[in-house]
Amino acid sequence: MFSTAATLCTVLVAGCATPENKTPQPASAPAAPPAVAPAPPVPAPAPSAAQPAETNAAASPKEPLPKGFSNAPQPFEGSGWQDMFDGETLQGWKETAFAGHGEVQCRAGAIFLAMGDPFTGVNYTNTLPTMNYEIALDAMRVMGSDFFCGLTIPVGETHCSLIVGGWGGSLVGISSLDGMDASENETTKFMTFEQGRWYRIRLRVTTHRIEGWIDQEKIINVNTQDRRISLRPGDIELSKPMGIAAWQTASALREIKYRKVDGPAGPPRKGF
Fold first, then answer.
1. Which end of the chain has the lower number of beta carbons within 10 A, N or C?
2. Which DSSP letter does residue 43 get?
3. HEC states along 195-215?
4. Is the distance from CB of 142 to CB of 197 less than 8 angstroms?
5. Sequence-ordered strand ranges (E) for 22-124
6. Helix-, strand-, coil-residue percentages of the chain, each rounded to 5
7. For residue 30, how many other CB atoms are within 10 A of its CB?
8. pLDDT in 10s for each residue of the chain, 272 residues
9. Phi, psi for 239 (deg, rounded to 5)
């Protein structure tokens, strides 16, 4: 043990001594470490279903339009029609404040009313005549089985609604006449409505008369003289003075127009 330590001390002293007749030489620089090639870049993992790649939401595809949506509208009969919907925005309209209403959006030239619980609708916010006028629009049932167009309009100082496709999907009529709603008065009618098909709905209000059409068929022709015209009590009253609503049904609306008229379109219904 001692001999080993002595030997180690001798080596250390010898390494530190410098002879007087020699210039000290600097210690040689340590060798540079060998070059190491950089590691190749690790490719980014492909996006998975759980972590989708970031996209521009505005460019995301939208759900398909209903069948028959692109079918061109029929021409409007007569002249003097004024647009109520610009086909692009809700300018002149607002969402009706129904509790449980669905989303309202403009898309592809139409107003879409998503299914509500129970109502979804829109109100017209511009001025509309209250007498001697006609209003028309195209409406489509997109999904659901109840009324896809509840058209509420002014009739002088009061209001009424034309219900299209209610009470299980087929009933048409005016609510209300003398307190009787669309399923109880002489305007009650049953029709078959296809999903994904446009229907031209037209309603004409003149002194002592309400007339209505679906496509070319006249479905309403009622004498309102000495009749009590009103809305069915309930949430539909939020559609005043003019609004369009759907009940537990998704619908689409387009080509909404009105014009002033000077009288009924035809003779009164026999017996009324």
1. N
2. P
3. CCCEEEEEEEEECCEEEEEEC
4. no
5. 82-83, 93-95, 104-107, 110-113, 119-124
6. 10, 35, 55
7. 6
8. 434 333 333 333 333 333 333 334 444 444 444 444 455 554 444 444 333 333 333 223 467 899 899 999 999 989 999 999 999 999 999 999 999 999 999 999 999 999 999 999 999 999 999 999 999 999 999 999 999 999 999 999 999 999 999 999 999 999 999 999 999 999 999 999 999 999 999 999 999 999 999 999 999 999 999 999 999 999 999 999 999 999 999 999 999 999 999 999 988 766 54
9. -80, -10
Q: What are the two backbone dihedrals, phi and then psi, of residue 246, each rounded to the nearest 5 degrees?
A: -130, 150
C-beta neighbour count of 3 within 10 angstroms: 7
Q: Taking the mean position of all CA atoms in its chain, how far away is CA 74?
A: 24
| Residue range 78-260 in CATH 2.60.120.560 | yes
Backbone angles phi, psi at 9, to 5 degrees: -65, -40
Contact 107, 62 (CB under 8 A): yes
Domain boundaries, the chain: 78-260
Q: CA 131: distance to chain centroid?
A: 31
Beta strand ranges found along 108-157 (DSSP E) = 110-113, 119-124, 133-144, 149-155
Phi and psi of 258, rounded to 5°? -145, 165
